[in-house]
Request: fold
Amino acid sequence: MISDNDMSLKTFNEIISESSKILIEREMELRLIIASMIADGHVLLEGVPGIAKTMTAKTIAYMFNLDFKRVQMTPDLLPGDLLGAFIYDQKSGEFKIRKGPIFTNIFLADEINRASPRTQSALLEAMQERQVTIEGNTFKLNEPFIVIATQNPIEMEGTFPLPEAQLDRFLIKLDVNYPSTKGFIELIKRIDQIEQAITEIKPIATKEDLLSAKNSAKNVHVDDSIIDYIVSIVEETRKHPAVKLGGSPRAGIAIYKIARAWAVMDGRNYVIPDDVKKVAKYALTHRIILNPEYEFEGITPSKVLDDILNKVPTPKP
Reply:
């Protein structure tokens, strides 16, 4: 079990419980986003407008008392609008850095696929290296630093599909769907209370708690049989007839990291096969490209991964 000095299972459950008072039927998304934060990874949320993608990111940031910045991505947004720039100070006669919104703990890139490819690419260094370069000067970003990006379905007008290199920088991708009919009714009935609760969010954990959980995840034991299982799943994506481009080694590393974080959230210091099964699809759906003829038949990455997870033998205890 995890140490008493680390975030407890009770704390994780409390965060999810309190967040669920605002976010109806979003428990799984909440768990996955928190697990990604523990794994030090970025999150891509895809869905149509109006289904609380932005509110989800904001709620989690407030629950951990983290610095939070949001930028609405638009086609005319420039890289400097995210990173910052050197500004001439007339009093000192020197150029001083004016840091942009990227200098935060949780950076929400709202509707990232509405930004131009040039601006999207400005995020690559920040996401991968946790640093930015402004006019030849390198600046380290805050710790922790997580990008949560929302995205409209690419078939909608006025969007720019993210390049594969940038998609690969996201640890997981979540498809955020409409609530059920029951959840929709509850949302409407509770909307006044929800709007009030958003303004009264009180942190349950701290930045230090999150950093402690990140250290715990690095010490989680992963048996060789589990690693073989992860490798088999990723390699199977390269063999599947419907897949044009399968998962890379980074895809396997993503599953490994998120599975360790999932174990920490369950109060364990070891990974079990079910951890891998629960997180693998979210780490892989955006990392495989299907053959066009299968896409025309209605085959999706999610269906392919269901097939693979059913096919690859599960390690025995």
Observations:
- The mean pLDDT is 88.
- The first strand starts at residue 42 and ends at 46.
- The chain has two domains: 1-218, 220-317.
